[in-house]
Design goal:
Elements lengths: L1 E6 L7 H15 L3 E6 L11 H5 L12 H9 L2 E8 L6 H10 L6 E4 L2 E4 L6 E8 L3 H6 L3 H14 L5 E6 L7 H16 L2
Parallel strand pairs: 1-2, 1-3, 3-6, 6-7
Antiparallel strand pairs: 4-5
Length: about 190
């Protein structure tokens, strides 16, 4: 299976980068064809410009500035997000990826006023997230990233398929042991993906 792995952490020596590398390695070990998309390393421009917005519904012209990313998404049969959660949301670069790449004609189409998915070719979805907040604080805040992954992205891909959701909460107070345990959890989950 061809798996697109989206990563959005700017620091090369970070725990987030270690999670990304482990995800890539474990997916490859499981026999998948892995497309690692490190948005910072690729200098992805997350800004939805005036031009982008004006041409937003004009498929396929709306894809011209992000054509390579659209092609990668269209080839994917699996999708894995590896990202930190900042202020109960995705980093701007990942949010910008969704705004600029998941376009009408690419990820959805409006048919008689209803949204129809164009991502049914993606059969598996997973997320590997790190939060500064505790699970309780994330719950009280409504945990928007978890809802986006398990509800919004899942519905756009295939609503009845299970989602692998892995989160290391309370990174502000984590220990070396908790980081090692979570890295092992990611390794095992991605080798079974």
């Amino acid at each position: 299976m061809r798996v697109l792995v989206l990563h959005s952490h700017p620091v090369e020596e970070s725990y987030g980068k270690a999670l990304y590398k482990q995800t890539l390695e474990s997916l490859r070990k499981a026999g998948h064809d892995v497309d690692g998309c490190d948005l910072y390393a690729e200098n992805f421009d997350p800004v939805l410009s005036r031009h982008d917005r004006l041409s937003y519904h004009d498929y396929p012209g709306n894809t011209e500035l992000v054509k390579s990313y659209v092609e990668r998404l269209k080839r994917a049969e699996g999708l894995v997000l590896v990202t930190p959660i900042w202020n109960f949301g995705f980093p701007a670069i990942l949010k910008g990826y969704f705004d600029r790449v998941w376009l009408p004609g690419v990820s959805f189409e409006l048919v008689d006023g209803k949204v129809e998915s164009r991502l049914r070719h993606i059969r598996k979805l997973a997320a590997v997230l790190t939060y500064g907040a505790t699970p309780f604080r994330a719950f009280v805040a409504g945990n928007p990233p978890k809802k986006i992954v398990k509800r919004v992205l899942r519905a756009q891909i295939y609503p009845l398929r299970p989602v692998t959701f892995l989160a290391h909460y309370d990174m502000n107070n984590c220990t070396e042991e908790s980081r090692i345990r979570f890295l092992e959890k990611v390794k095992n989950a991605m080798e079974r993906y």
